[in-house]
Amino acid sequence: MTPATYDNLRRLIFEKAGIVFGDDKVYLLETRLNPVARKHGLADIDALAAALRGANKPLLGDFVDALTTNETFFFRDTKPFDEFRQFVLPDIMARRGAERHLRIWSAACSTGQEAYSLAMLLRETGIHQQGWRIDIVGTDISRAVLARAQEGAFTQFEVQRGLPIQLLIKYFRQVGDRWEIAPEVKAMVQFREGNLMGDLSALGTFNVVFCRNVLIYFELAQKTAILGRIAKIMKPDGFLFLGGAETVIGVSDKFGIVPNRRGIYHPVTAPAPGATPNAVFSAPARA
Ligand SMILES: C[S@@+](CC[C@H](N)C(=O)[O-])C[C@H]1O[C@@H](n2cnc3c(N)ncnc32)[C@H](O)[C@@H]1O
Questions:
Q1: Distance 230 CA to ligand 1 centre (A)
Q2: How far is the CA of 87 from the centre of ligand 1 (A)?
Q3: What is the pLDDT of residues 270-279, one digit of tens each?
Q4: Contacts of 26 (CB under 8 A, 6+ apart)
Q5: Fold of domain 79-267
Q6: Which residue's CA is minimally distant from atom 9 of ligand 1?
Q7: Among 4, 24, 142, 152, which residue's beta carbon has the most beta carbons within 10 A?
Q8: What integer pLDDT is reported at residue 285 of this predicted model?
Q9: Which ligand 1 atom lies nearest to the CA of residue 16?
């Protein structure tokens, strides 16, 4: 691949997905794009770059799919899910008891393990039997991972990563060499294509957003813009979960930290004249 091709391709993935490929990622880009070139009958990556200049939508989709990193697993990092259950859920149930409608967004959901983990966790709490309506929405830019998420069938390797055995037994059925998630869990989750770099308002508003392990791929300006768009579609008393290597501090003034809860943030509401900012939120002390 020529240096000019590398620059064109990394400019294109930045334009489409906001993902930054540094000067040292030539080999990575080549390894990921060679199979795409072969699939589309193109001689090499220079030919692929030339073809991408045309309006070939399937090729562009495969290009984006190949350059996203889709690593995920059930109950990833454990702690955010414990915090969700022990702190966030009771808070929302107390504040929103009148409407009894909980909307959760798994932004950049990859193959769906995060969204399905939340669905199983919620079933385990029995909230669905207390008159609560629950919508979990998973979005991702990659059509390939979304197709897998929608299928809700996982390999032995995938169900062995993070999923407690009792939840595997309770909520999955083995079909051939894969494990299919139970229809009642699947019905709690919807998956849609969604680019964090674009307008997200069509998704509606959410009480809880999991946007984990994706901001790491963006530059500061993109992170700031994404967090701004997320804040716009969150309830003022909502909660944002970020990944272990991600923060809002120094990145966005649209969110504040939740005291004593690492990795959880709340939207900062514009203060009414004379009021203190964030008056809507007062975090109970950690037990
Ligand atoms: C490393 S996975 C994280 C999955 C999950 N949130 C977790 O923490 O396990 C990152 C996901 O972000 C998606 N992604 C990358 N750029 C995106 C964008 N601009 N809009 C939406 N999703 C994006 C990728 O396709 C990938 O599935």
A1: 15
A2: 25
A3: 655 555 555 4
A4: 1, 6
A5: Rossmann fold (3.40.50)
A6: 72
A7: 142
A8: 44
A9: 19
Residue with tokens 């004593």, as numbered in its chain:
260
Q: State the Cα torsion 260-74-36-19 to the nearest 10°.
A: -10
Q: How far is CA 119 from the centre of its chain?
A: 14
List pLDDT tens digits, range 170-186.
999 999 999 999 999 99
70 within ligand 1 shell (Cβ under 6 A) = yes
Residue of 32, 68, 84 best suited for mutating to test ligand 1, as the one with most atoms within 8 Å of CB: 68
What CATH code would you report for 3-67? Answer: 1.10.155.10
Distance CA 4, CA 18 (A): 19
Q: pLDDT tens for residues 195-252?
A: 999 999 999 999 999 999 999 999 999 999 999 999 999 999 999 999 999 999 999 9
For residue 185, what pLDDT is reported?
98
Whether ligand 1 lies within 6 angstroms of the CB of 226 is answered as no
69 lines ligand 1 (CB under 6 A): yes
pTM: 0.93
**Token pair 């083995």 is at which residue?**
174
140 in ligand 1 pocket by Cβ < 6 Å?
yes
SS3 state of residue 5:
helix
Task: Determine the Cα–Cα distance for residues 129 and 140; give it in Å rounded to an integer.
Answer: 30
**Domain residue ranges in the chain:** 3-67, 79-267
**What's the confidence (pLDDT) of residue 274?**
58
Nearest-atom index, ligand 1, CA of 19: 16
Tokens of 147: 């197709």
Residue 280 reports pLDDT greater than 60: no
